[in-house]
Amino acid sequence: MLSQSIWWSSIVLEVFLLTRGVSGRLIFRYPAFYGYISFVLAQSIFRSFVHRWSEELYSSVYWTTEFLGLILGCWIVFEIYRVALAAYPGTAKMARKILLFLFVLALAKADVALWSDPRLLAETTALQMERALRTVQAIAIVALVTVFASYSIPFGRNLRGILLGYGLFIAERVICLAFVPVAGKDFWFYAYSASYLVALGLWLGYLWSYQVIPEAENAQLERDYQLIMTTTQRRLQEARGQLRKAVRL
Fold first, then answer.
1. How many other C-beta atoms are found inside a 10 Å radius of the C-beta of residue 97?
2. Where are the domains of the chain?
3. Separation CA 201–CA 95 (nearest Å)
4. Which of 99, 204, 225, 233 has its CA 20 to 30 A from that of 197?
5. Rounded distance, CA 93 to CA 139, Å?
6. What sign does the dihedral 27-29-30-35 (CA atoms) show?
7. Measured between alpha carbons, how far is 235 from 1 in angstroms, rounded to an integer?
8. Over its length of 249 residues, how does the chain's per-residue pLDDT go in tens digits?
9. Residue 88 and residue 95: Cα distance in Å, rounded?
């Protein structure tokens, strides 16, 4: 009964959130975020129909849609960085490369686990992959918040809401994946489901209408990026010069 109540509540909040996103044209400003919400809504309804129609097919459908949702969740992190660092093109470019490397590394780690033992259950492999990717997402969110707090850079109401809701959802999921054994519908199952409800409530409140992101007056972040890049390029040139001398000897 409780799980059904949570499921229906999530459906209703997702519909409201998408409706406000379309009417407020926020869907065009945060396409990855609203694409993720649309996918989760369609996924929930589709899974419900499949479960009633064929329980044997449900497992394959569940883990396939779970993987697709996980990839879309990673795309939300890229969008958060894109919007947050729009005023800092150099820093944004470096952040995208680092994020892409970390996500590819996490996927590679999960693939290695599968290839090392092909007899691993699909569920075990999927959970390992989710654990790796969710951990990278959590690290990326904490890093961005830390940088913005250090440089006193404002997020803006809409982006702050996305960060709060998604950060809460990711934090709870990482705790479950890292410390809670896979089990049935225990406390942590309902806590995970409830955290998504709280996230939906936060998103609905913070994304009720579009709010302009305050212009950042602190350009120190981009100056620090340029300094790091200049120092790195100089050291690479020195290393190449030393390598040439060693080869000639």
1. 10
2. 2-217, 219-249
3. 29
4. 99
5. 18
6. positive
7. 63
8. 677 788 889 999 999 999 999 999 999 999 999 999 999 999 999 998 998 888 778 878 888 888 888 889 889 999 998 998 887 877 778 788 888 888 888 777 666 655 555 444 455 556 777 788 888 888 889 988 888 887 777 888 999 999 999 999 898 888 877 776 655 555 666 777 788 899 999 999 999 999 887 766 656 666 666 666 677 666 767 666 666 666 665
9. 10
What pLDDT, on a 0 to 100 scale, did the predictor assign at position 58? 84
Question: What pLDDT is recorded for position 192?
Answer: 73
Phi/psi for 79 (5° steps) reads -65, -40
Name every residue whose Cβ is closer than 8 Å to that of residue 220 and which is 6 or more positions away in sequence.
151
Residue in this structure with the two tokens 């702050």, named with its chain if needed: 160
**What is d(CA 247, CA 15) in angstroms, rounded to the nearest whole number?**
65
Q: What's the pTM value of the predicted model, to 2 decimals?
A: 0.81
Q: Three-state SS string across the chain, please?
A: CHHHHHHHHHHHHHHHHHHHHHHCCHHHCCHHHHHHHHHHHHHHHHHHHHHHHCHHHHHHHHHHHHHHHHHHHHHHHHHHHHHHCCCCHHHHHHHHHHHHHHHHHHHHHHHHHHHHCCCCCHHHHHHHHHHHHHHHHHHHHHHHHHHHHHHCCCCCHHHHHHHHHHHHHHHHHHHHHHHCCCCCCCHHHHHHHHHHHHHHHHHHHHCCCCCCCCCCCCCHHHHHHHHHHHHHHHHHHHHHHHHHHHHHC
